[in-house]
Amino acid sequence: MINSAFVKKLAVATLSATAIAIGMGTTAQALTVIDFESLAQPGDGTTDQGFSYTEDGYTLTNTNINQFPFATFNTGKSRYLGSTALYNNSIDGTTVLTRNDGGIFDLLSIDLGELNEPFESSTVTFVGTKADNSVISNSFNLNGVKGFQTFAFTDFTNLVSTSWQQIAPFHQFDNIVVSDITTKSVPETASVLGLLSFAALGAGSALKRKKAIA
Ligand SMILES: [Ca+2]
Ligand SMILES: [Ca+2]
Questions:
Q1: Are the C-beta atoms of residues 34 and 55 closer than 8 Å to each other?
Q2: Separation in Å, CA 20 to CA 7, 10, 16, 57, 204
Q3: What are the residues whose beta carbons fall under 8 Å from the beta carbon of 120, sequence distance 6 or more?
Q4: 196 membership: H or E segment, kind and range
Q5: How far, in Å, is the centroid of ligand 2 from the Cα of 117?
Q6: CA-CA distance, 126 to 178, in Å (whole number)?
Q7: Cα-to-centroid distance, 143 and ligand 2 (Å)
Q8: What is the pLDDT of residues 12-23, one digit of tens each?
């Protein structure tokens, strides 16, 4: 017989631990993980996935509709990093994450992995636009070693959208953890440097009709 009190206590403890682990205080959140596993395909090729992808009430949009769509590596591909992930196949292409109903959300973490061989370290800068029209930026550095790293966002709360670019050396992304429940968190200083570098990189991005993957 299952001790229901124990199960309940364990569930509460797990929720608290999760809330603390993600640094969002003690409010239990309904977390959503966008994991792309429904796109998994056997074989050693790549699969185009269109310019828009929806999962669990969230949509990723590739805004470069005159260039190349999102794609995934099939599970037998050497650049498949152990979990099906999406990548923007347009060089300097922009990816935008929004909620399908236009509502606000928090962005908690994302897994980023190298795209092309030889694998190189790179920096990916995310820019979030909040419901009050303020802008937040976080930059993450990939280690250049084949495989995903999980990056936690700082102050990516109350967002209406988040965008980032496919700048060389390129990346693939997986396990986007979001929450549509507004939570209290301690604001931290925005990465002004990251924002500036993003702007500088953006200014240098001319239209190029070349795929991101080799
Ligand atoms: Ca996955
Ligand atoms: Ca890596």
A1: yes
A2: 20, 15, 6, 25, 40
A3: 114, 144, 169
A4: helix 192-203
A5: 12
A6: 14
A7: 5
A8: 444 444 444 444
Which ligand is the nearest neighbour of the Cα of 142? Answer: 2
| Four-residue CA torsion sign, 20, 108, 159, 199 | positive
User: What residue has token string 């999102």?
Assistant: 70
User: What is the per-residue pLDDT across 97-146, written as a single tens digit (0 to 9) for each?
Assistant: 999 999 999 999 999 999 999 999 999 999 999 999 999 999 999 999 99
Please tell me the number of the ligand nearest to residue 143's CA.
2
- Determine the average pLDDT of the residues in 37-43: 98
What is this structure's pTM? Answer: 0.74
Question: Ligand 1 centre and the CA of 85: distance in Å?
Answer: 5
* Residue at token pair 């937040």: 136
Ligand 1 centroid – CA 37 distance (Å): 5
> To the nearest 10°, the Cα dihedral for 37, 40, 46, 48?
-60
- Closest-approaching ligand to the CA atom of 148: 2
Q: Rounded to an integer, what distance in angstroms lies between the CA atom of residue 114 and that of residue 99?
A: 26
CA of 90 to the centre of ligand 1 (A): 21
Domain 27-203 coded CATH 1.10.3470: no
pLDDT band at 5 (very low <50, low <70, confident <90, very high): very low
Torsion of CA 214, 149, 64, 42, to 10 degrees: 60
* Residue 214 or residue 52, greater confidence: 52
Phi-psi region of 62 (alpha: psi -120 to 50; beta: other; left: phi over 0): beta
Question: What is the Cα–Cα distance from 157 to 105, expressed in whole angstroms?
Answer: 6
